[in-house]
């Protein structure tokens, strides 16, 4: 193994941060690292909004399900999939942009995720902790209005950054055989392997919570997927000019 792989495998979500500020020069460097990520067709379809305004932070925390660390983390970034500047490029060359294609939504979202993960890994390489905030999509209309997002821009998730004030255990991941297939999609052993993995996850939760929570991964997922998953998202994205065709 090397230091990069060890860093990647040591990731934990951090939800308690020290009050120490992060220098703006470091945040700038983290975002430059994000820009270095792979980008589909050189679209570079990610915009990052660094939110410093206290009132906006409080409101974003409420939108994300009252996750207090959104308001209190030393730094909070919102990663937006952005096709607006591409419309500008077309206008600069008197071209009629064909917007609204599902493929454009996929590539912009993928660009955003790749960009953000580079930022996260770069931050952890400096000893910072991070946690992604997908909860912004709970009340995505309010988030978009608060951040004054134009058409063809939507907030994919937020990211809290700061010096860790906790040291949680690493959450176990699925067995390699479940996620790495060779030549074809062979799921013949997935049930058996997931059952074994369920035992690991139960023990992780039992240890982490002092025995107050015992839940397997498959139980957690099945409980999640019998519920609606932010059904407002499609209409919001279509209003923003995405997923029209």
Automatic annotation (TrEMBL):
UniProt-listed SUPFAM superfamilies: FMN-dependent nitroreductase-like
CDD domains per record: NfsA-like
Entry superkingdom: Bacteria
Record InterPro entries: Flavin_OxRdtase_Frp (IPR016446), Nitroreductase (IPR029479), Nitroreductase-like (IPR000415)
Annotated Nitroreductase domain residues: 9-163
The entry's keywords: Flavoprotein, FMN, NADP, Oxidoreductase
PANTHER family (alphabetical): OXYGEN-INSENSITIVE NADPH NITROREDUCTASE
Similarity remark: Belongs to the flavin oxidoreductase frp family.
Name of protein: Oxygen-insensitive NADPH nitroreductase
Organism: Marinobacterium aestuariivivens
Designated gene of the protein: nfsA
């Amino acid at each position: 193994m090397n230091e990069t792989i060890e860093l990647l495998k040591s990731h934990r979500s951090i939800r308690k941060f020290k009050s120490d500020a992060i220098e703006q020069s470091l945040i700038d460097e983290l975002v430059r690292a994000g820009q270095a990520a792979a980008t589909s067709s050189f679209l570079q379809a990610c915009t990052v909004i660094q939110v410093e305004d206290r009132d906006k932070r409080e409101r974003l925390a409420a939108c994300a399900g009252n996750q207090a660390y959104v308001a209190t983390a030393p730094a909070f970034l919102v990663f937006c999939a952005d096709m607006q500047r591409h419309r500008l490029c077309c206008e600069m060359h008197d071209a009629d942009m064909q917007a609204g294609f599902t493929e454009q939504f996929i590539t912009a979202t993928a660009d955003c995720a790749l960009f953000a993960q580079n930022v996260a890994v770069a931050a952890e390489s400096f000893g910072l902790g991070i946690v992604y905030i997908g909860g912004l999509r709970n009340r995505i209309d309010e988030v978009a209005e608060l951040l004054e997002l134009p058409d063809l821009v939507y907030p994919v998730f937020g990211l809290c950054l700061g010096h860790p004030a906790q040291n949680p255990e690493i959450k176990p991941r699925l067995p390699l055989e479940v996620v790495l297939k060779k030549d074809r999609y062979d799921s013949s052993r997935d049930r058996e392997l997931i059952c074994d993995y369920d035992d690991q996850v139960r023990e992780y939760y039992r240890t982490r919570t002092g025995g107050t929570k015992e839940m397997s991964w498959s139980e957690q997922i099945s409980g999640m997927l019998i519920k609606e998953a932010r059904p407002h998202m499609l209409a919001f994205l279509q209003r923003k000019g995405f997923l029209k065709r």
